[in-house]
Amino acid sequence: MSMSSNPYTDNSNNLNKKTSIVNTNTYRINEMKEGVKSRAGSGLGSEARAVEARAVEARAGETWAGEARAGEAREGEAREGEARAGEARSGEGEARARSSGICGDVGFSSGVGRVRDQVLGGGSFGGRGREDDGRGGGVSSELRSANAHSRGCAQTRAIQEALDTLRGNVKSLVVSGGIPRISSKSLTSLKFYREYVAKNQPVIITGCLNEWPASKLWSMDYLSKILGEEKVTIDFTPDGRGDSLTPDGKTFVVPATRKVRFRDFAHILRSPKPNRVAYLQHQNSNFSKEFKILHSHIKPLRFAEEAFSAPPDAVNIWVGDQRSVSSLHRDPYENIYCVIRGSKTFTLLPPSDAPYLAEQEFPLAELEMRRHEGGTRDCHWRINPTGQKVRWIPVDPDFPKRIRADAKCLRNARPDLISPLRCTVDAGEVLYLPSSWFHQVSQTTLTIAVNFWYDMEFGMRWALLEYLEHSTKIGSAD
Prior knowledge:
The chain is α+β, with helices and mostly antiparallel strands. Helix content is 33%, strand content 23%.
């Protein structure tokens, strides 16, 4: 095509000549031509050929990022040619239909919808269906799909930017300062509530167990003497990992549970076996139900009861050695965790890390412990499926290689983006663990602890955390 002094006029003339070729579709062509002429008046007439060509052939979808093809403009099957994005930029006059909103970028602007509705007329052209070439409905579908894809990409970017901002704020406001340690001497219930509970901030409190009889009396020898014949619920595992996933990341397994005399439990801890780990950790307020003889040895802490305005929902006792390790989880409770003997090491993650942990449903199974035939004291283990499912977290910040790296459950996990906090709580100290904080716990020696669970408030904080998880779904498995 030769260049002229006024390419806008030349292209308008070309459009008039082509209009006469497709006179059988006069109504739609005239409607389209009037739209193009009105745009030509604003300095964009050179782009009219591509609008008409797209209206007749609508061959969208071949290269969304850089090329919009303009198809046939004849009544029969003669082709008029293609209008490429490069020709429009070179000034050759073969422009794309920018006046109608078709972009040279990935996706389309809102003008595509107007071109589609005006020119294609909902899949028919001048009263005659486009089913002849089998593409009429597909074009409209492809345009809608491209628009949806573009909007989805924009929403994903916006969500990721919001998550990055949230993670940065949590690091600067909560994580960077670590977990503070304060003395109980200066702690009032009002201060505890305002500075820690209201802010959902973990804190270690020292000196508040000094008046407990348990702090002076409890040892394994003393408990064996007081509780010797009392039967208590003990959890057994082959490796010390109760309530955790199998190494292939496919099944969530709960421990084998047995009623055992406390004297025998103490002996098992003193004489450990390679494939049998016992842990007193059955929860469900096990201290309230099975250790009534020890109730007078402890008492709820006043600052906590006043801050939470209620007695605890449950009181649990924990007794185990260094082989017992919990997996990452969270509880719907405000947790006051009191270490009486030994020490506990906590790894804590703020609730805002939820999108990176790939929490999902797993088949639930139960461990079964059996003695080998022949009278040996060794055990062998069996995993029994229950047919139920449970939601759990496959990420392990302390033992990241425990679950196989190629496990499907880790496909959407982002452990590189989590913000773990670690602390050790020694004998006589208390950890306030706020509701919804993720945590896993271990110990380096035989440890005895008691914790109080207070009901959490299901208010705005909980609602926002639920929204965060359901709106991102970064951690959900395929």
